[in-house]
Amino acid sequence: MEQMTVNLGQNSYNISFHTDFNGLCAVLEEIGAPKKLLVVTDTNVLGLYADEVIGLLKRAGYDAVCYAFAAGEENKDMQSVLGICSACMEHKMDRSSMILALGGGVVGDMAGFAAAIYMRGIRYVQIPTTLLSQSDSSVGGKTGVDFRGAKNIIGAFLQPKHVYMNVSALKTLPKREFISGMGEVIKHGIIRDEVFFEYLSENTRDVKAMKPETLIYMCRNNCRIKANVVELDEKESGVRAHLNFGHTIGHAIESAVNFSRTHGECVGLGMIAASYIAEQRGMISGEELERIIDLLDSYGFDTRAELPDFDKIIEIMRSDKKSVSGTLKFVLPVHIGEVKSVCDVRDEEILNALEFISM
């Protein structure tokens, strides 16, 4: 088992990297988990891992039950969160009980939000099973749901007590979901670590082949980058906003196409659009823009897409939580491995960027 710590004072926790679920009970014992547990998952993960995890927990003496909601971003809403809270009540969970989030980013976000509001806050553990959640969403304590077409507009910060990553779970992902997760992986290289960006370029074959040692190295480096940023800025008042690279336009595209494209696919398009704006401003070279596009392309991303009305995308962007008093915050690359936040991107620049990524 490999392990690293997210250092947040009293909110600190460990991330452990495994090739199966067999170490889960030892981790729960280490963090002092209670006997009463609710495993929250979705209908996609239910048939894959829920029985195995529940079986491990019960054999270890835990009073564990499973609650599954309908899979899909369209079900990432308050109604589903209330369903989790209802399951907590039916299982007679109290403030000492714990939620285990078994699944991808939607599961982690909603289970974490339910943990944040049930009895004004109970503990939870992240057990991410997708690349998107293992590389990004399970680390950092952001929880939430979509509301009225706005992504993650209702939520709370609540750090997990542990993040348990079984990289072998990635082998059951549909190809499209694996590609989606690679969007966040590539993002981390662009914003903080050019060496990691080069690793992804040079080891594309091993990553796609899902070699366990490659996946653990990749996930550990993702978590290192994410943890370093979160440690500097837990509540996103400064540098943590850099993690939103590609998300300002990406989230708007995701909502505008009614989630018919995955989060990672939209972030990939958003990163290209933001990089194009940076290139047009003379912040990065045309060669660096092409390196970013080429890396995304090598992992199977659409680097161009059919987009809906551009004005609709900009309107959605202005309702995003990253907008402050109607001013849009953009994260733009200075070079591969470094970005900065700006608030002076004009609508004309956005329109040109959308034109650049449109088919």
- Ranges where pLDDT stays below 50 over 5 or more residues in a row are none
Structural class: alpha/beta
Task: Going across the biggest sheet, name each strand in turn.
Answer: 4-3-5-6
Order of helices and strands: EEHEHEHEHEHEEEHHHHHHHHEEH
**Overall pLDDT:** 94
How many individual β-strands?
11
In the CATH hierarchy, the third-tier topology of the largest domain is known as: Dehydroquinate synthase-like, alpha domain
Instruction: Please count the helical segments.
Output: 14
CATH homologous superfamily designation of the largest domain: Dehydroquinate synthase-like - alpha domain
What's the gyration radius in Å? 20 Å
CATH level 1 name of the largest domain: Mainly Alpha
User: In the residues, how many domains can be counted?
Assistant: 2
Q: Based on the structure given, which CATH architecture of the largest domain is correct?
A: Up-down Bundle
Coarse morphology: globular
Characterize the biggest β-sheet.
Answer: 4 strands, parallel
> Which oligomeric state applies?
single chain
What share of the residues lie within helices? 40-55%
Q: Assess the beta-strand content as a share of residues.
A: 15-25%
How would you describe this protein?
The protein is an alpha/beta fold. It folds into 2 domains: 2-172, Rossmann fold (3-Layer(aba) Sandwich); 175-357, Dehydroquinate synthase-like - alpha domain (Dehydroquinate synthase-like, alpha domain). The protein contains 14 helices and 11 strands. A 4-stranded parallel β-sheet has the order 4-3-5-6, with helices on both faces. Strand 5, helix 4 and strand 6 (123-128) form a beta-alpha-beta unit. The protein starts with a strand and ends with a helix.
